[in-house]
Amino acid sequence: MVEKKRTTKEILQTKLADKKRTPLYHPDVLEKLRQEFERWRNTIVREEDRKNWHTTPRTILGSDIPREMLYTPLSNPAFDYMQDLGHSGQEPFTRGIHANMYRGKEFTMRQLTGYGGPEETNQRIKFMIAHGATGINALFDLPTIQMYDSDDPLSKGQVGMSGVTIDSVEDMELLFKDIPLDKVTISLVTHYPSNTAILFPMYLAMAERRGIPFDKLRGSVQNDITLEEVVRSGLEYIPPKDCFRIQCDNIEFIRQNVPLWNFVTYNGYNLREFGTSGVTEMAVALANAIGTVEEMLSRGHDVDWIGERLAFFWSPASDFFEEVARIRAVRRLWYKIMKYRFNTKSPRSLWMRCHVQTSGVSLMREEPLNNIIRAAYHALAAVLGGVQSLHVDSYDEAYSVPTEEAALLSLRTQQIIQAETGIIEVVDPLGGSFYIEALTNEIETRILDEVDEIEKMGGYVTAIDKGWLHKKIAEYFYNERNSIEKGLIKIVGYNIYKAPVDLPPINVFQYPEGVEKRQQARLARLREQRDHEEVSVALTALEDACKRGENVMPYTLRCARVCCTEGEMFKVFKKAFGLWKPPVLW
Amino acid sequence: MAGKIKVLLSKLGLDVHNRGLITVAKELRDAGMEVIYIGNSFPKEIIHTAIQEDVDVVGVSSLGGAHLTLGVDLIEEAKREGLKQRMAFIMGGVFPPADATKLKEIGFDETFMPGATREEIVSSIRRIVSDKADRSL
Asked: Which of the listed residues A420, A478, A565, B75 has the most CB atoms within 10 Å of its CB?
């Protein structure tokens, strides 16, 4: 008889049941407190408040978690300081992955940058670095994200619009010209496994041309199946199982060859922004991470070999304390999963390291300056939650790509938090709050329950294939829209406190002109001058590797070196894997 | 006006952001319209489908900056096929306010930006469709 595979939740329940708990509160003290509490509730609290003791904050992207009117030790009676919190830099890492947190290393101020051709974005990157940005997040345009070349008829009119356009290694050279790649950490926002497999090798080939060894390169890619198969509208999709395989191929190759590079960033962000609660955002990312670790183990790798470099990407939205608690909760849960489910040995593997970007869909077109305040609260919640790096959205993003002024203001928001508020001096300043700890527990339970649901369905790839996630998202954002329209979710300047008069217009970024022509001309020259024989041999070798099940990245690297374009490599994937039709969303 | 309003909805070009358009698709369906959602498509194909399905409204969504370039192509294609008088053309998405004005100059009947309510979208579609029907009598 085949033993039924136990889920992560079942494994954690068994293993944690054996651990002896040492509650902080003595039972006698709790009992006395309970009596005092009841007396207070019955004599001082108004009847109306007694009846509505729990209320549920309704916010954009919220998780609808009911809250008590007042939190006390009774909200978390079994609280065990060492087991539930520990000190910072200590298991279970609830309080932060480093003992000294921001005293030791300030959060990285990593603003998204990308528009026009590589030349324009190169200038913007230099501008951000000159103003104190400590990391760069390079964002690609839609043809590059969707893997079509600038001269593809499908790319017409879209080259360099909402990100930078990249066709080949030559564009990568222009993009990072004069930027010290061994000093600044670079995050390449290669959303999908497929475009990671194609674009990251171009980055590597560029580094080779500049004589920078791979082991000096530091940064990250996203490389997440969720984005390729769920969170996008597109024309052509490869099947989920092949996409997941490429995700794992990328991880394997980068781990072996670019040791300081973060080879995956489980992207909860875009999923949540598309439409899920903060709980689902984290459950899905964890399910994907669990699936990846399992796959790597089945490929014969050691869990710590991969575990030490896994990273996550979250979207802090408007429910302030939920956001702080969520980051703490997922940090503890990830620790438990790595320790008890995967038996990791290295302390680093127990760390839930993360980048966050403040929520974009929470920003409004109406009274756009209000968005500055919203994003600052999102960022503050993230810092109080103990994140590693941060991007703050700009107030003008419901209009266009941010202007230089707006992008600078986003950076300044981070710098003000870091330099002026004093909050970075003390680690996990909200830790121990009755409210925060109870909420952290509640969120952790809810995330694990959703991970369990996914695993019982057959795992994450199956959950995508069956359309479970697609349906869940569509339902979520439709309900959210209804709640906003009904005024249940309140938005200042939109459905409450609407300005009686039109406010003066803001400056809006205008897309640069002439980028498409310039890019196409460069591409035409490249196609003419490169070695056609080498190109065709490299592309054929890639196709064979796809079909044979060999790791694709050595082959895409070879393609990148001989100036194959992004579109050419994606064509090979489509040919080798065939196309998949994603579930209908409505 | 007889019958259900028939609406064709498409993501314009390679744009990845479909949350808004899917929301609109559901809302129009709930408002009693017949909705054909074709996902990502390009001006020629969109017009081809619009003719084939004989729709009253063509709604496209763009959040990635291609609203003008592909918007111009779409309207030109529509004019070439003589559809501008009988079909309504609507653009929704993220674009600078000045571009919303340009889109109307090009020939779009209406534009919707973030913050547009269900009521605004449904009622203006009904109004535009009914105006076009009156004019073609």
From this structure: A565
